[in-house]
Amino acid sequence: MDIRFSSASVSFGGRMVLQPLTLTLTERRIGIIGLNGSGKTTFARLINGLVKPTTGQVTVNGLDTVRDASATLAAAGFIFQNPQHQIIMPIVHEDIAFGLKNRGLKADEIERRTAAVLERFGIPHLAKRRVHELSGGETQLVAIASVLVTGPGILILDEPTNQLDLKNRRLVETTITGLDEHSIVISHDLPLIEQFERVLLFHEGRLVVDGPAQEAIRAYHAVAGC
Ligand SMILES: Nc1ncnc2c1ncn2[C@@H]1O[C@H](COP(=O)(O)OP(=O)(O)OP(=O)(O)O)[C@@H](O)[C@H]1O
C-alpha cells in the first residue's frame, strides 16, 4: 500500500475542515482518532475519492483519486459508519454477490467467491438470512465481506465497533486485526487502536500527532481534557 497526500486540504462552503497535509501511508494497520468533527471521516474519504481534495492531490498506489476515480474505488473499499446503509440486497448471499455481478463475473465464479468469503469470515450460516434481521456484529461482518469479496487491497472502516456490545465488538476487532488487507480504521475504540502500528490524531481539522499508538492516544486524552 502506498497512499500519498500532497498538500491536500478540504473546504466545504468556503470553510476549511481539513488543513493541508502531506504524508505517505504504507503501514498495515493505521488508526485515526480525534474528537467529533475533527476531520477524521473527511480524511478517510479522501483516500478512496468519496471526497475530492479542494487543494493538492491524493494518490493510492499511484492512482490519482480524482483522475482515476473508479480504479481508486476498486483499490480502497470503504465501510461506512452505518453499514446497513451500504447493504443493498435483502439477503446476505445476494448482497455479497452484488459487487461481483456488477463486475460482470460468470455465475459459477460469483458462487465460488461468495462461498469463499462467507467461509473466510465464519458466516456461511448467514448466507440465506435477511439482512435487516442481522445483529450489529453480523451486519458489520457482512458489510466487510461484501466489500472484500471484490478484492480491494485496502479497507477503510469508519467506526466499525461503534454501537456493538462487548461480544460483537471483540468479534469485529479480531476480524479487523486478522485481515490480510491493509486497513485504515477510524475509531473511538482505544483498545483496538492501541494495537495499530501507526495512529493519526486529528484536532480541529489538523493532523496533530502522527506516530506510535501510545503517543497518539496520550495526546488524544490531553486534547479531550480527560
Ligand atoms: N459534506 C459536508 N458539507 C459541509 N460540511 C461538512 C461535510 N462533511 C463534513 N463537514 C464538516 O467537516 C467537519 C469535519 O467533519 P468529519 O465528519 O470529517 O469529522 P469527524 O472527525 O469524522 O467527526 P465524527 O467523529 O463526529 O464522525 C465537521 O465540522 C463537519 O460538519
How many extended strands? 10
Helix-strand category: alpha/beta
CATH H-level superfamily title:
P-loop containing nucleotide triphosphate hydrolases
Examine the coordinates and then state which fold CATH places here, giving the name of the CATH topology: Rossmann fold
Gyration radius, to the nearest Å? Answer: 18 Å
Helical residues, percent: 25-40%
CATH-defined architecture? 3-Layer(aba) Sandwich
Distance between the termini: 35 Å
Number of helices: 8
Q: Roughly what fraction of the amino acids lie in strands?
A: 25-35%
The CATH class name reads: Alpha Beta
Mean pLDDT level: 95
Order of helices and strands: EEEHEEHEHHHEHEHEEH
In total, the number of domains comes to 1
Which distinct ligands sit in these coordinates?
adenosine-5'-triphosphate
* Regions with little confidence, pLDDT below 50 for 5+ residues: none
Major sheet description? 6 strands, mixed
Strand order in the largest sheet: 6-7-8-3-9-10
**What does the overall shape look like?**
globular
